[in-house]
Amino acid sequence: MKYNFVIFVIFVIFVIFAIFVIFVGVLRGLDTNMIKILVTNDDGYRSDGIHALAAALKELGDVTIVAPMNEASAIGHALTLRHPLRLDHLSDKVFGVDGTPTDCVNIAITQVFKGLPDLVVSGINKGWNLGDDVTYSGTVAGALEGALLGIPSIAVSLRQTRGDYDFSYAAKAAAHMADAILQRPLPPRVFLNINVPKGEPLGYRATVQAKRNHITSVGVREDPKGRPYYWIEEGQNDWEPHDRSDYQAVRDGYVSITPLQPDLTAHDVLDQIEAQTAGIGKTTALR
Fold first, then answer.
1. pLDDT tens readout for residues 168-187
2. Long-range pairs for 109-114 at CB < 8 Å and ≥24 separation?
3. In angstroms, rounded to a whole number, what is the distance separating the alpha carbons of residues 225 and 163?
4. Which of 14, 30, 82, 263 fits a 20 to 30 Å CA distance from 236?
5. Model pTM?
6. So what's the pLDDT on residue 5?
7. Where are the domains of the chain?
8. Does 3.30.1330.10 match the CATH number of domain 36-277?
9. Which among 47, 177, 62, 165 has a CA at the least distance from the CA of 112?
10. Whose CA is closest to 51, among 146, 165, 154?
C-alpha cells in the first residue's frame, strides 16, 4: 500500500513538471513570435515624448527604448567614431547610450536585441521636422538608420509649444502608421516622417517635403577675454507654397505623412551630367 502511494506521488510530480515545461515553452514561443519594436529619439531617454510613444506602441508588440543619455537635437545622421560608447540598463526595457540616435540604433541591434527588430520608431520630437530640416534632424536620422538596415521605420514629431506637451495624438498617429506598415510593408529603404499639429488633428495627409528659402543668422558675442564666439540662430524662413507639402498639411491642422528615402540622387539630371562629362579626357584643358 505504501509502495503504491509513493508511485502515485512520483507520478503526480512528473505530471506537474511536464505541465510546467509545456507552459514555459508556450510562453517562450509567444515571446519569440511577438513583434519586437525599438524606440529611440534625439531628446534623450528622459523625454516624456519617448515614453508616451513607447506606451502607445505596446499594443503592437514588445517595446524596448534605447535612446541618448543626453539631448542630441539637430545632430543629423552622425555616427560616433572618435570615442567609445557606453550602454546603461536604466530600467526594465529602457537603455541609455552616450551617443547619437544613429549610435543608439546600432548599439540596440548588436547589444540589446542581438539581431534586427521588426520596427524602429524615433520620437516623439518636441518640434516639427519638416521639409529641408529633415537633413539636420536626429529624430529622422534614427528612422533613416533603421531603413538603411532593412527595418520598417518611422520618425514622429510634434509642434513645439510653450508649457506642457500633449503627446497623445502624435503617439496615436505613430501607432496607427506603425500597424499599417507592418500589415502592408513599405518598399525597401523607404521610411515615414510623421509631423503632428498641436491639438486634435483634422485628419491625415500624404505629403511631400516642403522647400524654403532660408536666411542664415549667426549671433556674435565676446567672452570675458574679448575673444569672439558664435551662436547659430533660427534665422528667417520663407516656405515655398505647395498644396501637398508637409508644412502646409500641419499648418492646416492635419497629420503629415511623408515617405522618405536615403537616395539623394537627382535622377532627372543624370543625362545632363553624362553629356557634360562625355568629352572630358586626361588632357582636356579648362576653359
1. 999 999 999 999 999 999 99
2. 109/38, 109/149, 111/87, 112/64, 112/66, 112/87, 113/36, 113/38, 113/64
3. 37
4. 263
5. 0.85
6. 61
7. 1-33, 36-277
8. no
9. 62
10. 165
